[in-house]
Amino acid sequence: MSGNFEVIGSRAARKDAPNKSTGKAQYIEDIKFPGELAGALLQSPHAHAKILNIDTSKAQALPGVVAVITARDVPAVKYGVSPARYDENLFAVDRVRYVGDEIAAVAAEDLTTAQKAVELIEVEYEPLPVLLSVDQATAEGAPWIHEEFPDNICAQVEQEFGDVEAAFADCDLVQEGSFFSKRQDGAFIEPNQCVALMGHDGVLTLHSSTQVPHYVQRTVAMVTGLNMSQVRVVKPYVGGGFGPKASATPIDLSASFLAMKTGRPVRMAYTREQVFLFSRARHGFIHKMKIGAKKDGTLMALDHQATLEGGAYSSFGIATVYYAGSLLGGPYKLPNMRYHGLRVFTNKPACGAQRGHGGVIARALFEQQLDIIAEKLGMDPIELRLKNMMETGDVTCNDLAMSSLGMRECIEAVKNGSGWDEKKGKLPPGKGIGMACGFFVSGAGYPIYRSETYHCTIMIKADEDGGGVTVYTASAEIGQGSDTAMAMIAAEAVGIPYEQVRIKSGDTDFGIDLGAYSSRTTLMTGHATKEAGDNLKAMILEVLAQELGIGQERLDIKNGLVKISGAPVDFTAIRTGYIKEHRGWQDQPQGDELTFREAARLAYLRRGTLVATGKYKPPVLGGKYKGAAVGTSPAYGCSAQVAEVSVDFETGQIKVERITDAHDCGQAVNLTSVEAQMQGSVSMGLGEALFEEVKFDAQGRILNASLGEYHIPTVMDMPETKCIVVESGEPNGPFGAKEVGEGAIMPTIPAILNAVRNATGLVLEETPLTPERVYLALKRHKGA
Amino acid sequence: MLLPTFDYYRPAGLPEALSLLAEMGEDARPLAGGTDLLVNLKLKKAAPKALLDLGSLEELKGNRTDDGKVSLGALNTASRLASGGPEVPGLLSLGAGALGSPQVRNRATLGGNLVTARPAADICLPLLALGATAVLAGPQGEREVPLDGYFQGPGYTVKQPGEILTRVLVGAPRPGVGGGYQKLGLRQAMEIALVNVAVYLELEGDGETVALARVALGAVAPVPMLSPGAAQALQGTPAGEKIFTEAAEAAAADAKPIDDHRGSAAYRRDMVRTLTLRALRQALSQAQGSKEARS
Fold it and tell me: Which residues of A touch B194 (CB under 8 A)?
C-alpha cells in the first residue's frame, strides 16, 4: 500500500552494516575489562539425582581460585520466566533435575584454573529414576520431579469456544490426524556470554548477550536482592536469539553474584554444548486434532489436544502451551474450538520459546489436515482456504481481532508467484507442490509479569546544533534489524533524512523496553519511537511558529526541510542569525526553504536541549477467559507459502527446490529487512521440517550437542526463495507496520509436508522428515 | 572450549620428525590440518604432551607421477584434491569435494583423513576403491601398506606410533577406467555420511567387459571396507544394469551396519544397495565416456 513516505518502505542500509562488515562490531567476546576473572559452572552429570553432599574445599584451595559459590552462598530465591511458575534455583539445593543442572560456580584468575576448580568440587549424588518422555513422566507411580507439581504436570489448559460437539454432529466430514515433533535447538551463532561488574557506586552492570535486557535486569535484581536502580543491563551486538535468549541465564546470575562477592569483573560464557544443555528452545510436541467440515468446505469445529515435553523447568512453557492452542483461532473462520493442552516435566533441559512460539507444529498438523479435507471434498487446497479465510475486521472465536489481514492477497501472491495452476496435479512422479498459511502475534498483549507498565519508552534528543537526532531505547537489536527500523521510524516522524538519525540501544539506563520477543519491537517500540519523533517535531515547530508569528498548523518538516503552507513567510532573520553564528563554516544553509538544522538550532536557543519522549502499551485487548492473555495482540501478521519438493524414492531424501513466500507485514519499514526475516524463517522452518532433532541417550545425555551433529540447513540446502511482501496497512501499527519475524515461519513446515504428500501420497506424522523416516514410510505405503 | 597445554614442535624434515617421535613415543601426536586433532583436544578426547606440526616436511608435499604410479603427498589438502589436476584420480576428487565445507577442506589433509580412519571418511573410501597403498616412514625406514588391510577399527590403523604416513600411491589415471562416489547424508554440506560408496571400474579394451572392480563401503562397518562379493560379481562380466544390480545386492550382503542415533542398520543396508548401483552407473559412464576419462 506504500503510503507517502520519505524513509519508511525503503531499503536504507542497516545502521550496523559498516561495523559488522568490517569486523568492528563489538560483541561481549570483544569487550574486555581490566582485572577480569573467568567464571565456570559445575553442572550435573546426572539427569535426576539427590545431592547428598557438596565439598568445595579442594576447589577453594586451588591457587588462582578467587571464589566458589553454591546454593549455600546465594539467597534461596526461586525465579523463572512466568511468576506463576517460578521453579528454578540458581544452584541445585538438594536435587538435580537434568544433565546440566547448575550446582556451583567458580571465579578464578583464568579460565583454565576455573575449569580445573570445577572438576575439583566433589558432589555426592544418589541417583533417582530418570524420566525422559511424556509417557515415563505421566506413568502411574512415576516420581515427581518437583514436589510442588503433582504427577509432573507443569500446566494444563482446558478451553472451549462455541459448542464443539454440537458442531461435529452437524458436519459432513470429520477428519482426524496426529503429529509428533522433536526438540529443537535455537542454534544462534553466538553462544550466551556475559560480564558482570560491581561498581563503587553500588551499581551492578551486567553486559549480556540477551534478547531481553529488561527481564534480565528484573531477574538479577530479584535474585540478588539489589533494587532495579542498582542493576544495569547492557546488551552489545548479539549474534542471534530466536527465543532461547529471552530470559536471564544461570551465567547472568552467577557472574553477578561472583562480581558482587569478589569486587572484580567476572566473565562467563557457554560453550556450544552448554547452549544445548541450557536449551530453552522449541519443545517436542504431540498433537491430535479432529476437524469438522461441511460438504461445501466450510470449517465448523476443531477439537485439539497438545502435549508438550517440557524438560525440568517451566521457563516459558506455560505461555507455550497456551500459544499451541490459541494460534489456531485464525486465520480461518472457525466458530467452534476446543483445546486441551498439557505440559509435562521431564528430566531433560527445559524447553522455552522459539520463533513461532508454541504454534509451529500445531499449524503444521492443522494445515496438513486441511489439505486432506480439501482432497476428500474434491476441492483445490487453495479454494478451501480462501473459502474459510477471515477478512480484515473479523474476530476469532477466541477473541483475536484481525485489525488487518492480507491473507487473501498473500494466497493470490503465492498462487501466481509459484505457477500453482500450471503445476498442481501436473508434476512428474517424485515432484510435489504444497501450500499452507499461518499468522502470528505482533507483540504479546501483556508483559510476562502482571503490570500496567509501558512496554517501551523512548527518548529522542535533538543535537544542540540541529544537525540530527539521537534515539535512546532499551530495545534489543539482536541481528533482526530493530536499530535500523527505529532509526527509520524516527527519521520519518521527525522529518529528516535517515542518515541524520543515530541510535543508542540495548541499555536499561535508556528506559523500559520488554525486549525482542513475540515479534513485538516493530509495532510496539515503533509506536513509542514514532510518538517521540512526533513530539520532537512539535517542540521544534512550536518555537518556529512563535518566531515566525504564524500558526503552528501551517508548519511541517519533511526530508530535513521546513514546509510552510499558505502565503510565503519571511524567515530571513532566522537564517541570518544562523549564518552569523557559523561564520567561517563551509556548509551554510541555503535555498529558499528553511532547514531542519536552522529550526532545531533555533528551538535549542529558545528552550535549551530538546528531548522528546514516547511510550507505548497496548490498549485493553479482548478476551476474558482464562489464558486470554496469551495470543491477544494489537495486530497479527500473516503469510502463505508454496513449497515445491522432489523426493528420492530410493533413499527417502527430500529436496526443497523452491519456496514462494508472501507475508503481510502491514507496511514494510525496511523492505530488505522484511525479506531477510522471511528468508530466515524459511531456513529455520526447513531445518525443523527436515533435519533438526536434539537426541538423548537413555541416561538423558545429549548425543548431538554440536552444530556438526545437530543439523541446521547450510546455504547448500536452501531452496530458491521468492519473497513477496504484502502491505495491508495495520491501523494499530506505526505507519501501518506489524510483525514479520515469526509469522513468516508458520507456513513453512506444513507447505513442505503438503508438497511431500503431493509427491508421494504419504501423510507423514513425524518430523524431522529424515531420509530414513521417509524411506520407511514409502516402504510401508508400497506394501500397504 | 580451551586447548589444553602442550609442547609444540615444527620439525624441518622427516628425519627430525621421526627422531622426535621416537624420543617421545605416544606422548607426541603428529599435527597436519588439525580438523580432528584440535577438536578432540578441546573435547579432552586426547591429551598428548606434544604436537609435532608436519607442515614443514617437504617429503609429505606435492604429487608426482612415476612409472604408471602417482605418488600423492600426505599434506595434500582436500581442497587441492577436490580441484583435481593431472595426477589426481577423478574418484579421489569426488570424495575430497564431498568432505565438510570449503573451510574444512582448506585445512583437512589426505594423510590426516587416512590416519584418523573414520568409517565414513570421504577420502578413505575413494582411495580404498582405487587400490591405493600407504607409505609409512618409521625409524627402520619406509614400508608400503595396501589400504586393504590398513584400517583396523574406528581411528585405528596398522600405522605404529613411531611412524608417519608420508605419501599414498595409486595407479595413474588412464582411459578405460571410471570412478563413482555416492554419499548420503541429511544435508548437502558439513555432513558425515550415513552411508557412502566409492566404486572403481576398469574395462577391457572392448569397452564393456569389466576387467577389475572395487566397491568400497563407508559407515557400514568399523572401518571403510571393500565388498568382496560385489567385486567378484562384476569381474569378467559385461558391465550393465543386470550385473550392477547383482553387485549392489552383494555389497548390501557384505555390509555390516549397526543401529546408532544417525540411522538404523536395516536402512543403511538398503542404502548400500541403492548407492552402489548409482556409483556403478556413474563409474561406467565415466569409463565409457571421453577418451580422456580418468579413474
Answer: 771-772
